[in-house]
Design brief:
Blueprint (H helix, E strand, L loop, with lengths): L1 E7 L5 E6 L2 H9 L13 E3 L9 H31 E3 L4 H15 L6 E3 L4 H9 L16
Parallel strand pairs: 4-5
Antiparallel strand pairs: 1-2, 1-3
């Protein structure tokens, strides 16, 4: 695991994020999956970082950060399990399916019995929001144990 200091070029926000490796960072950046949590811009770059000095105090801090990361990862995996068990996967057709459900519900004056999940671009999510269709982007990680 590696932690990078990042900077949003659009709104000048500085923040940190963990990555499996430097290759993983580059892969996510290339696919435009890194975004600023303040302005949602994909114009995010690595920022200057202070080198880490190894000593006993640092090792304790590093261990605590690793424990926090594992706790967050466990929580995300629990959310993913809940979503997989309670929602229908629609793959890359998320925006289309969300519109279908939304407008069918309005027309028939009823609520769908089962929600959906899948993939959508940031632009598609923005358009859905403008149409009054509720959708959220959540982090999704591969569970290598399953």
């Amino acid at each position: 695991m590696i932690k990078y200091s990042l900077k949003c070029i659009s709104c000048n926000l500085n923040f940190e994020s963990w990555f499996a490796s430097s290759k993983e960072f580059e892969k996510l950046k290339k696919k435009k999956l890194l975004n600023c949590h303040n302005c949602n811009s994909v114009n995010v770059e690595k920022s200057l970082m202070a080198p880490s000095l190894i000593n006993n105090r640092y090792n304790v801090s590093k261990d605590n950060e690793f424990k926090k990361f594992n706790k967050i990862k466990k929580t995300i995996l629990e959310y993913q399990k809940f979503i997989k068990n309670n929602f229908e996967f629609v793959g890359n057709n998320f925006a289309y399916e969300a519109r279908s459900l939304h407008y069918d519900d309005k027309k028939n004056k009823k609520k769908s019995q089962k929600g959906i999940y899948g993939s959508a671009s940031k632009e598609e999510l923005k358009e859905l929001k403008e149409e009054g269709i509720g959708a959220q982007m959540i982090p999704w990680i591969e569970d290598k144990n399953n």
